[in-house]
Design a protein that fits this description.
This protein has 206 residues and is mainly alpha-helical. It has eight helices and no strands. It has helices at residues 7-13, 30-44, 50-57, 61-64, 68-96, 104-131, 138-164, 173-203. InterPro entries: Invertase/methylesterase_inhib, Pectinesterase_inhib_dom, PME_Inhibitor.
């Protein structure tokens, strides 16, 4: 697994995202930002966790404007950032854990969790890369988006697998901590996939 060298680079890139142009945009008027914020809130209603969706994406209103493709791309980027942070946390936890001998099952689950989160990071990175390079219309565009949907679904499955590995592990604080953190990442990934699906269903012409 290759984790991004700096999570700051993910968030730095997000406001500059544009499916159409890389030229810097002028600062939006307050009314434009308000409209974009409303657009994000409305779009987030299509997700399973709308309040989390809005809270995690509203800060990018000036970049998103009212563009569903930009919103989906930003959501994927936020999901990638969360998954990468989780992977680094798991790596650090594995290095400093002292419970391995006392609870080998938990230690194994932690290693497996790190592995599947590494896969999730790679899949989300591929999704973001594809979202930044959307071209064409119709079937060509749908094919590109289908790749994103496939990779993001796989990432969500891998995140689920992390918590599944802790089933049967009892009386372990690490289990509670890792599972709670993983659930939060899963919710963000679920929201991102929902916004990608919403974009495809409502804005991509067959």
């Amino acid at each position: 697994m290759r984790i991004l060298p700096s999570l700051f680079l993910i968030t730095l890139f997000l406001p500059a995202y544009s499916a159409q142009s890389t030229a810097p945009a002028a600062a939006p008027a307050p009314s434009t930002t308000a409209n974009a914020t409303d657009f994000i809130r409305t779009s987030c209603e299509t997700t399973l966790y709308p309040e989390l969706c809005y809270n995690s994406l509203s800060g990018y209103a000036s970049a998103v404007q009212q563009d569903p493709a930009r919103l989906a791309a930003v959501a994927v980027g936020v999901s990638l950032s969360g998954a990468a942070r989780m992977a680094m946390y798991l790596a650090d936890l594995s290095r400093r854990a002292t419970y391995g001998a006392a609870n080998p099952r938990a230690a194994t689950a932690l290693r497996d969790c790190f592995d599947v989160f590494g896969d999730a990071v790679d899949q989300l990175r591929g999704s973001l890369k594809q979202m930044r390079r959307l071209t064409g219309t119709g079937e060509q565009l749908r094919f590109q988006i289908s790749n994103v949907q496939t990779w993001m679904s796989a990432a969500l499955t891998n995140e689920d697998t992390c918590t599944d590995g802790f089933e049967g592990v009892a009386n372990c604080p690490v289990k509670t901590d890792v599972c709670d953190r993983t659930v939060k990442v899963k919710e963000v990934t679920s929201n991102a996939l929902a916004l990608v699906n919403h974009y495809v269903a409502n804005f991509v012409v067959p």
